[in-house]
Amino acid sequence: MKKIASLTCVAALCLPAFALAEVPADLDTDADGVLTIDEVQASFPEVTSDGFSAMDLNADGVLDEDEVVAAQEAGLMPPTES
Fold first, then answer.
1. What's 16's domain CATH number?
2. If we measure between CA atoms, which residue out of 21, 20, 51 comes closest to residue 37?
3. What is the residue range of 65's domain?
4. Structural domain count, the chain
5. From the CB of residue 54, how many other CB atoms can be counted at a distance below 10 Å?
6. Does a structural domain hold residue 31?
7. Which residues of 11-20 are buried (b: 16+ CB within 10 A; e: fewer)?
8. Which helix (H) or strand (E) holds 3?
9. Would residue 80 count as lying in a domain?
């Protein structure tokens, strides 16, 4: 029983870290967990296709949560509220 309680506490402490790494909901208009160039440009029209490609580290045509964080840390995308 103590193991379950300990694991529950650890999981609860880790949840905020996972929440910080989500794709911003206000940008993800179709709620699929990734951002397309159209979704990014709707909020940040200054982002060019070349700029988007620079953010798309795995070149799959969308930005996942890790790519959004990396783009924001690199100054390629402005920080977001969510």
1. 1.10.238
2. 51
3. 2-73
4. 1
5. 13
6. yes
7. eeeeeeeeee
8. helix 2-20
9. no
Hey, CA dihedral for 58, 60, 65, 70, is it positive or negative?
positive
Burial of 72 from C-beta contacts in 10 A (0-12 / 13-18 / 19+): middle
User: Whose CA is closest to 57, among 74, 41, 44?
Assistant: 74
Is 81 within a domain? no
User: What is the residue-wise DSSP string for 9-64?
Assistant: HHHHHHHHHHHHTSPPTTT-TT-SSSB-HHHHHHH-TT--HHHHHHH-TT-SSSB-
pLDDT at 31: 95
Tell me whether residue 78 is in a domain.
no
Digit-coded pLDDT (tens) for 28-76 = 999 999 999 999 999 999 999 999 999 999 999 999 999 999 999 999 9
